[in-house]
Specification:
Structural class: alpha/beta
Largest sheet: 6 strands, mixed
Helix content: 10-25%
Radius of gyration: 18 Å
Oligomer: single chain
């Protein structure tokens, strides 16, 4: 199985190395995932004021960024396509993207997107529209234009699951269900037990606003019924 998981800067990288030290099949890369190969990119403190200075809001920007919150210049950036080539792989079985807004570049209009045409089987990603406005819907649109099935798991966060165009919708939903069953702790406390935990995102449907909207649209229940009183 060929899985790709890209992490953010140190000390996350050091933790990744420590956590995977006993797994010989894991290759940890200290690099920034980006839409196109660039000579340099910058790591900046993101635009969430309440989380300023915390690693889960660090994000990658273009190397010539004038952002006053630049934390470091990262010398290496990679694309998913370049990784497939360098690792001599035809595809990844799983691509996991939790990259704090960099999905705006990875799926942007100038990005190298050839890997979407058979270069992966399953993909799990978290959208960060609060960090880069419009990136969530743009990502969904790019995938759906390529006949890639997009599934909404019923989670609190803006998380999606997708399957390559060669995988049927039924198989994709079944895979998402198996994956999702391991994360029941993420369901809101008032989530009804009989509500579906996933739903295929219809072509052209706008991205849900938040977790409760996501669950409401997946289940058909009014949002008000899902809120704890």
């Amino acid at each position: 199985m060929h899985a790709l998981s890209l992490w953010r800067p140190r000390p996350n990288y050091a933790i990744l190395r420590a956590n995977t030290a006993h797994y010989p099949g894991v290759l940890a890369l200290h690099a920034a995932i980006w839409g196109r190969e660039a000579k340099t990119v910058s790591v900046v403190d993101g635009n969430r004021p309440a989380r300023s200075g915390r690693e889960w809001q660090y994000m990658v920007a273009a190397g010539n960024s004038s952002n006053s919150k630049v934390l470091s210049r990262q010398p290496q950036s990679v694309t998913v396509s370049s990784l497939l080539k360098e690792l001599c792989l035809s595809r990844f079985d799983l691509v996991k993207l939790d990259i704090e807004g960099a999905e705006a570049s990875v799926f942007g209009k100038d990005a190298v997107l050839s890997w979407l045409d058979g270069g992966f089987r399953f993909m799990y990603w978290e959208a960060h529209d609060d960090m880069v406005r419009g990136s969530e819907q743009a990502t969904i649109n790019i995938l759906q234009q390529r006949s890639i099935t997009v599934v909404i798991p019923a989670t609190r966060d803006s998380i999606y699951f997708a399957c390559s165009y060669g995988i049927s919708t039924d198989t994709c939903v079944a895979a998402c269900t198996r994956w999702r069953s391991n994360f029941s702790a993420w369901l809101p406390p008032c989530f009804p037990a009989n509500v579906p935990i996933r739903s295929v995102l219809a072509h052209g449907l706008a991205a849900p606003r938040d977790g409760l909207d996501r669950i409401s649209r997946a289940s058909g229940l009014p949002r008000e019924q899902l809120i704890c009183r």
